[in-house]
Design brief:
This protein has twelve helices and eleven strands. The protein is of the alpha/beta class. The structure holds iron/sulfur cluster (2 copies).
Length: about 400
């Protein structure tokens, strides 16, 4: 007897054991975007591939019925693109269907769910989007703004090359009013905007956004000396946060407690959630994360783990479930004195590897991480000092 791919191996779960992290189910509702950001990793955007409701419905039915593969007590239904708000009617249908179906199945996710939309913000004010926001409190929205106009418009441009800052900025007050306390943004740092890092993040704080999830891109974009610019910019950001007394109330993930130490074998997990998330493309194919779709890959073929018809193939999943830090790192990284917090992207690792392995870690970010660690240490020393003075 052969194993059915839908019910592959009893007891095997796409689940991180005993923790209670929510399951991320990501719908790539379209491969199109109305922007053409210069640093975008979606290298093959197109208007041809849009998800239909039939595909979305089949994916939801599969996920909700395969309880042994998805035993998490909670779910985040995620919508990305391209630009997901281009498909607002579909998102509306998906949200309604997940509520209906989890209720009918008496599924624990009926009570424990959230929705998340990651958008460029340009369509936030439109009637359909606004109706969805009003009717669904559990929909979290993340809008990306890369600082003031002269910086944001360096990279975040429309298809015709014109800047998008004015259109995004116009929607920020409405977003902050509708989602007070729940509005974070993402800032992506690449070579071009690196010299503006402090200005960008302080500008975003000035808009009333208190959480900035910032990262340096993992791709090979860095020039010699960029690490020193990063370090100077992070010191400048810290100066601004202390001068404006933002260090208690505002958070930028460049400054994180606990990064920059050596890691032992008791800290050997994979960095990213690849394999424990589920991404669904417009055709109903499943992936370990959205970076394994064809439109995110430059050199390698897409890497599916199943589809809505056959379910997840656990044999294809195995290499993802077995990933650890040391199994994909060089000896230099394993022995590194500051490795904690040094990140990687599994999809980029796969795209850049010498063979089609996912076990070869890309380290273009090495000097940037070391610079971050140095500035981060100084930031937290200042926090300790400021707390001591304030008693
Ligand atoms: S808005 Fe997002 S998906 Fe669109 S081009 Fe920019 S980075 Fe890419
Ligand atoms: S990439 Fe560089 S900083 Fe990161 S763990 Fe490896 S050696 Fe350390």
């Amino acid at each position: 007897m052969t194993d059915s791919p839908k019910r592959p191996f009893p007891g095997m779960q796409l689940y991180r054991g005993e923790n209670t992290l929510p399951k991320n189910i990501t719908f790539i509702v379209t491969e199109e975007c109305n922007f053409r950001c210069t640093y975008c990793y979606l290298v093959h955007k197109n208007a041809r591939h849009r998800m239909s409701f039939e595909v979305a419905k089949a994916a939801i039915d599969y996920v909700l019925e395969a309880r042994e593969l998805f035993p998490e007590p909670e779910v985040i239904w995620d919508f990305i693109g391209g630009e997901p708000l281009l498909e607002i009617d579909l998102i509306d249908q998906i949200i309604e269907y997940t509520k209906l179906r989890t209720y009918e199945l008496d599924h624990p996710w009926f009570m424990r769910h959230n929705y998340s939309i990651t958008t460029n913000g340009s369509l936030y004010h439109t009637d359909k989007v606004q109706r969805l926001i009003r009717e669904n409190n559990s929909v979290g929205i993340g809008i990306t703004i890369d600082g003031p106009k002269h910086v944001h418009d360096l990279a975040r441009v429309y298809k015709n090359g014109s800047g998008t800052h004015a259109d995004v900025l116009a929607n920020i007050p409405l977003w902050l009013k509708q989602r007070p306390g729940n509005s974070g943004t993402k800032v992506t740092i690449a070579h071009e905007n690196l010299p503006h890092l402090a200005e960008m993040i302080l500008y975003v704080f000035g808009l009333g956004i208190k959480e900035v999830n910032a990262n340096c891109v993992f791709e090979q974009v860095w020039h010699e000396g960029d690490d020193l610019i990063l370090e100077q910019q992070l010191d400048k950001l810290a100066d601004g946060m202390f001068a404006q007394n933002l260090w208690r109330t505002h958070n930028c993930t460049f400054f994180s407690r606990g990064i920059g130490q050596p890691q032992g074998m008791d800290d050997n997990g994979n960095w990213c959630g690849s394999g424990f998330m589920l991404a669904i493309d417009t055709m109903g194919n499943f992936y370990p994360c959205n970076r394994f779709l064809g439109f995110s890959l430059e050199k390698r073929k897409e890497r599916m783990i199943g589809n809505i018809h056959d379910g997840i193939d656990i044999n294809i999943m195995r290499p993802f479930l077995a990933l650890t830090r040391t199994s994909q790192s060089s000896q230099e990284c394993i022995d590194c004195e500051v490795s904690r917090g040094c990140a990687w992207c599994q999809g980029l690792n796969y795209d850049e590897a010498d063979t089609s392995t996912i076990y070869q870690r890309v380290t273009y970010i090495c000097e940037m991480h070391k610079a971050r660690v140095r500035a981060n240490k100084r930031f937290w020393e200042r926090v300790v000092e400021a707390e001591r003075k304030q008693g």
